[in-house]
Design goal:
By secondary structure, the protein is an alpha+beta fold. Helices cover about 50% and strands about 30% of the residues. Strands 1-2-3 form a three-stranded antiparallel beta sheet, with helices on one face. Helix 1 packs parallel to helix 2.
Amino acid sequence: MKHSDAVKEHVHELFDDLLKITDNKYPFHVNLTRQKDESYHVGINCSYQQKMLASNSDDKNLYKALARGVDSMRTQIIRKSDKLKAS
């Protein structure tokens, strides 16, 4: 997939919320792949509080795949954070 400023900007906008939630302390690794059937696969990994979190999403629209992946990661981080606060 070619590097695109529009995709880069969209990724930064989506991750801005995640970075605020995590206080920008944990790195996120994003893998964007274009599949043979013209769909996109988005994989996001993060080691949050020494726990590995992963999110995968597929869609024909790259932006929808990114949004689903980030939303899933946000949900996982919030749940993990709530569990840590409760203990």
